ABC transporter substrate-binding protein
Amino acid sequence: MTRTACSNAWRVLARCLLAGLVSGMAIVSGYAAAKDQVVFGITLEPDRLDPTSAPAAAIGEVVHYNVLEGLVKIEENGQTSPMLAESWDMSVDGRTYTFRLRPGVRFHDGQAFDSAAVKFSFERARRPDSGNKSRKKLFDKIERISTPDPLTVVLVLRHPDPHLLYRLGESPAVILHPASADRAMAAPIGTGPFRFERWDKGHSITLVKWPDYRDADAVRLQRAVFRFTNSFVDKVELPPEVDVFFNFATKTVLRNRLNERYQVLIGGSSSKALLAINNRHKPLDDVRVRRAINHAIDRAAVIQHILDGRGSAIGSHFSPTEIGYLHLADRYPHDPGRARALLAEAGIEGRLRLKLSLPPTPYARDGGQLLVQQLAAIGIDTDVELVSWAEWLNGAFKGDFELTLINHVEPLDYDIYTDPSYYFGYDSADFRALVEAHRNADNPRQRNRLLADIQRKLADDAVNAWIYAPQVSTVARKGLEGLWVNYPIYVHDLAALRWR
């Protein structure tokens, strides 16, 4: 697509999105002024609402903690606390966890929450065809699930896992009921403080307070709307009916620092922004080409351009907020001369042409422009492909890409590199051996050493070009309390929100 065609397409898209905003005002009109309702603006529309069957983080942003709950909750500080499990014990060898469930909990349709629902959900999640993004890093590690009584669940692990409780607090581990699990993609039924009401495709998802929630009196909001703002919002003023813009584009954040209506919250997250590389495709299967791409990127310039400097350069698939983080950003300094030499060593004659697929997020569309220039400086020309989120999930995420700029928000998700079928196409027996050794490590010092080795191996193989760990910028209407500042996981705890 030419630059002119892209510009015209964006003008048309912006007009259409703005028209959609106006046409949808009837749904959210008056919410901003109400003290028992909130309107969230989120960048991407989920492709479904079942976080146990698809990888998109946008699903959890809407339903996790609100409609669907897990045994464990991850707090803003990254610590775990009881949710549907009121307590648990771990055996001395670290392989057996016994969870005691909360009594009297029911799903929104009246079905009882019990150990049978937990067993069903976990066995469903570990089916090879489940689509659960935590299948390998969590559910495949469970050797046996037993339910001695309706309020007790016992998990026996194949190996000790120091991250088990954290994994159980992520959205792929929410509990569904056998009678309604098949409806979760379009109309999820859970145990949370809010129930699903409606999904206006292309516009918004509406949740309403569930009066029979176990702690309903503590929930102040009666309704929440998740409005899909997409990247056009950085080009216009903030729509007045939206109360919260999550992970918002930097230029808009700066415009609203002194705005009388809004406050700006800036915190940390587990996100990793990377130029993903398809390791299956020639010549990208040559580590020298991948290393050349890494040397081509001026990370400081990208961070300044996209985030106004609010981010940290990274060199492997770990964020500075994650345990065991090793600073490797200097492994590939910006060095166009070295990059060109590596391409020559790899036998690249003349200019190399690659396709760069960009999803519809501000960081991808803005950052992609700069990466095109930086790659061109070392002899790599790019054909830019602007795709919708659904097209990205059905294309790049399924391995149909060469380069793509994407933000991985899941914490401690290095296990994805053990799967050769994952969209990067990375296949390393040595890396898998490191991860397996970490799983079997029996003391914290050994585990931390192996985490460092895992990060070094990914960096040395230049599997991807990791660029930055962003800070999270949230623009919120003044008077709204209870919002997170830091995001160890991408979730919005509506039950904690209230208007001052």
